[in-house]
Write a structure and sequence with these properties.
Order of helices and strands: EHEHHEEEEHEEEEHH
Helix content: 25-40%
Number of strands: 10
Structural class: alpha+beta
Radius of gyration: 18 Å
Shape: globular
Distance between the termini: 22 Å
């Protein structure tokens, strides 16, 4: 885990960053459906849960692009992490509350899935906002609203507007004819991510869903 400071004066994105951070502070959200027909069939065949598989998909794409790993560190320096791990919400059905758990990311899915299962076994019943302690600084948030197949979702975050990492919200998948669609909303900060980067993220997630047999079989 290494944080790489960015020298703003040598950064090609400097004018965009300064405009959307200092002059017109701007975040935006985008919601799109992903076709998970093949993915869901393969997961059911292997007896694997959708939520951790989708978390792994998201994290794999995040780790492929510096734009999704750019943020301020604890010292206020702008830079990017070499790699990131997911911090995701889990639901407690008995009292309708949720908690946050993080799991160490590994590119081989089987290794990450074992981390997930171990964390769920140890912390899945722990109540409170943070179920698993000692969350490292190189994490980003993922949450799920599995009761609603939403067509739009927006987070209204009332802070200084300097949280630069993407925030992911997964909805309920629905069946349309022979296709299964899963809505995914992502909150971006325009200082580090433009529409091109958002489109790239959705495109690569769809590619991973379509080619799920390859990375699910890799160990």
């Amino acid at each position: 885990m290494r944080f790489n400071p960015i020298v703003i004066d040598q950064w090609s994105r400097k004018p965009y960053f300064e405009h959307y951070l200092n002059h017109v502070r701007c975040t935006y959200s985008m919601t799109a459906n992903l076709d998970i027909t093949l993915l869901l069939a393969e997961l059911k065949h292997k007896g694997i849960k959708l939520y951790p598989a989708f978390i792994h998909m998201i994290t794999s794409v995040v780790n492929q692009h510096v734009e999704f790993r750019t943020c301020f560190d604890a010292e206020g320096r702008l830079g990017y992490w070499d790699s990131m791990s997911p911090s995701y919400t889990i639901f407690h059905d008995e009292d309708k509350t949720f908690s946050s758990i993080w799991s160490l990311y590994s590119e081989p899915f089987e290794r990450f899935y074992n981390h997930y299962l171990d964390d769920m076994k140890q912390y899945g019943k722990v109540k409170g906002f943070v179920a698993k302690p000692d969350e490292p600084p190189n994490t980003f948030p993922i949450s799920s609203i599995p009761w609603v197949s939403f067509t739009g979702f927006n987070l209204n975050i009332h802070n200084e507007g300097t949280y630069l990492l993407p925030i992911f919200t997964i909805g309920k998948y629905v069946q349309q004819a022979d296709t299964t669609l899963l809505p995914l909303s992502v909150q971006f900060h325009h200082a580090v991510c433009d529409g091109y980067h958002a489109g790239l993220l959705y495109h690569e997630l769809q590619l991973r869903a379509d080619h799920c047999k390859e990375w699910l079989a890799r160990d």
